[in-house]
Amino acid sequence: MLIGTSGWQYTDWRDVLYPPGLPQRAWLQRYGEVFTTVENNNAFYRLPKRATFEAWHDNTPPGFVMAVKASRYLTHMKRLNDPAEPVARLMAAAGGLGAKLGPILLQLPPTLQAEPDRLDECLRRFPDGVRVAVEPRHPTWWTDDVRRVLEHHGAALCWADRLGRPLTPLWRTTGWLYLRFHEGPADPWPHYDDATLRAWADRLDGADDAYVYFNNDPGGAAVRNALRFTDLTAP
Predict the structure, then answer these.
(1) pLDDT for 235
(2) Residue 103 vs residues 41, 131, 190, 209, 214: alpha-carbon distances, Å
(3) How, if at all, do strands 159-162 and 165-166 pair?
(4) I want to staple 69 with a disulfide (CB 3.0 to 4.6 A). Which of 44, 75, 90, 208 is the partner?
């Protein structure tokens, strides 16, 4: 099981993860000393060049894994329509990670209702061997047709939590899992409490091939919760 955070470039993580005075260019290297994986959210807003992905590869330790959130151009602007070119462009850039490339995350807009045929066409465009996790956010997606599309392509339904509650069905559509923690129910906000984390640890029991990311970054909550979840799921 690989556990990390959604992103690493947060200024309020100084004194939480990054020592005082550590330059920002060294943050990823420091992050890789603590965590084995990260979910790269930068690519959602603006797709970095391949050389940037190559630099991230070189600045992380052996065995490190970087998941990549697909560009909003594909998911939010084109809404999965005509996916061939944006998927090819994404993979050409993210391929700079080499063996450190983890799953591609397709987070769909909350207003996008179920389009299983459109999703099927999009998933077809990813190269063989590339793992894809899909995070729908409209309730119309919870159908047998959608589940069959995910299973057919070996794509994972992204499990998601907000305030200690699952936002999705807990379908296992492939042999690996992808889980995102968005906002915890504990005080101070947006932390997660041990009871919630233990409940998720029980759901993941036996899932050795899993990617877990904490997206509750304010105040360093994601760092603290990811470290705690690592402790709770340790053999």
Answers:
(1) 84
(2) 12, 5, 25, 12, 15
(3) antiparallel
(4) 44
Tell me what the pLDDT averaged over the chain comes to: 97
Q: Rounded to two decimals, what is the model's pTM?
A: 0.97
Q: Report how many domains make up the chain.
A: 1
- Looking at the DSSP bridge assignments, the partners of residue 5 are 38, 214
Cβ 194 vs Cβ 164: under 8 Å: no
Cβ count near 82 (within 10 Å): 14
For residues 69 and 41, the answer to whether their CB atoms sit within 8 Å is: yes
pLDDT of residue 205: 87
- At 47, which CATH number? 3.20.20.410
C-alpha to C-alpha distance for 161 and 179, rounded to whole angstroms: 8
Q: What residues make up the domain containing 196? A: 2-232
Question: Cα–Cα distance between 8 and 191 in angstroms, integer?
Answer: 17
Residues β-bridged to residue 159: 179
Residue with tokens 């992905």: 53
